[in-house]
Amino acid sequence: MKHKIIDQYYKGNALNAYELFGAHLCEERGKKGVRFNVFAPHAQSIQVIGSFNDWSCQGYMMKRADEKGIWTLFIPGVKEGDMYKYRITQATGRVVDKMDPYAFYSELRPNTASIVVNLEYKKWSDEKWISQRDKNFDKPLNIYEVHLGSWKKEEGQEWVNYKTIAKELIAYVKKQNFTHIELMPLNEYPFDGSWGYQCSGYFSATSRYGSCQDLMYLINACHKAGIGVIMDYVPVHFVKDDFSLSYFDGTPLYEYEKPQDADSQWGTANFNLWKEEVRSFLMSAAAFWIDKYHVDGLRMDAISNIIHWHGNKDLGENEGALYFIKRMNYNLHTKFPNVMLIAEDSSDFADVTKPTIDGGLGFDYKWDLGWMNDTLKYLEKDPIYRKWHHHDITFSMAYFYSERFMVEFSHDEVVHGKKTIIDKIFGSYEQKFSQLRTLYLYMFTHPGKKLNFMGNELAHFREWDETKQCDWDLLTYPIHDAFHKYFAKLGDIYKKTQALYCKEYDWNRFEWIDADNEDENLFSYMRKSDDRTYIIILNFSPNMYKAHPFGVYDNGTYKEILNTEQDIYGGTISELQKVKAVKQECNNKPYTIAVDVPAFGGVLLEYKKRKPSVKKKDGKKELVKK
Predict the structure, then answer these.
(1) End-to-end distance of the chain based on CA atoms, in angstroms?
(2) Active-site option among 82, 100, 145, 301
(3) Phi, psi angles (nearest 5°) of residue 583
(4) Known catalytic residue: 344?
(5) Which helix (H) or strand (E) holds 378?
(6) Which end of the chain is more exposed for a tag (fewer CB within 10 A), N or C?
(7) The pairing of beta strand 405-409 with beta strand 365-367
(8) φ, ψ for residue 394 (rounded to 5)?
(9) What order do you get walking across the sheet with 578-580 strand by strand?
(10) How does pLDDT run across 125-156, given as a tens digit for each residue?
């Protein structure tokens, strides 16, 4: 037995409990087989049953390894690919067959057996990527959120395969200028419609898409192509199905004891995050995907339900759960300092992205759900009424620097009758596209890292359905194809424009030109780097503004590098503008530029600071002011 892991496990500090628990191929006393270890302190007895003994009613009896609840057994002759379950005589005397909580692979639903696998992958070749990756604070981070089962379907197959989809998915992601893929949960789960967020196997890569080795191939291929991989992780709740964690040994081993605490709003069971063994289980599960599968980040779901009981601020803070999340993030950062931890948190709880040593929760990023809700709420309105809601757009910058925010349009925004991003926008078919292009100019020039769900880049009108692939035939329609190209161009500009990602959490890098022009539905602001300034103008009205004045600090020429109404992107404008500043105060700035702003359109202008000339005088270099 691995005594150090056991000690850390009981203290709630284990990051590697999977090295002890589960089914491990090994050799003992000259015989090859599998060592099984499981935690079930209140069980009366446990048998291992499986394909290797024809699921016999008289399985192999496990023995208690310690007084606290670990059971163990070595079975010679068991090999990779064999299926097994634990037949537990619970504290109540009830006999139930359970999956292994630490199973590394499982049967395809509706079957529930655990499967013995070897997680050693000899084809990893991403050492350079792993050594150079970081948290991307001063790098472009443009994430493509993917539900692997519905991105694209293979002909005649219910599911794609991790390995066979790799080449096409990676090529597409690179062409669209994403930097990372975020995969919706790949842990095992029984109900397709939960998308993986109602989990049964926390260490088990879902068999829907192939083998563990196939998933490793996909991630390795992403890294070789320069694409990072983030995986969704759910440390809040688990399924109540009898084969899984629920009342594992006949007692609430993983869930809270009180039903009012244990029962979640999703019909699942909330983890008892006050219990040390549960903390070790969840911390180890998080570390497992980083260690064994080389993921570059974890996006943690429903963190508001950790912060407050049932995610309800009125019920108060869950102090034990907060202590857990701080401990987990601290330990993960210590062991994997270059891996991102991202919070999906709808609360206004402070210091989510502040380091734990400074009293924060220790996440690297937090989704800006307020920005998403306010922005989409504004665009749903008739432009006539938008002036009364002008600060739905400007409000985000009032709080942006309180956390390290990520702006996102995720899967949650395009399901359950909410309409897709384009379909939420007020107006005619053509007006929706014009405003969608302007919306995305706003998104990519707003401070904060970016995330979009698959289909957003196609201007999807149909809500997401996990049983159907994306509507790729939309690209046969010129207006959708043009938007698809526009979206890729935005990603290209974002990746190549330092002012849009470097030091973006420094308030000196963003400045409003005019945040208060509600009568014209106009917004204008600057993004700055050391040697360049970018002017962004957004028009959410149906009126075109010719030679509209905007204040700037610097004299010189401002070159338009993107116009949302360019003909190549579905608009009518063929030539981009060059505007020269004049010495005239505007918006409390010394110079003015006059810019043509299209109806429902946006423009992006670049100003390069001129370097002073150098001439020699008496053999010495001398700066010449221009």
Answers:
(1) 76
(2) 301
(3) -75, 90
(4) yes
(5) helix 369-379
(6) C
(7) parallel
(8) -80, -20
(9) 510-517, 522-528, 532-539, 602-608, 557-563, 578-580
(10) 999 999 999 999 999 999 999 999 999 987 77
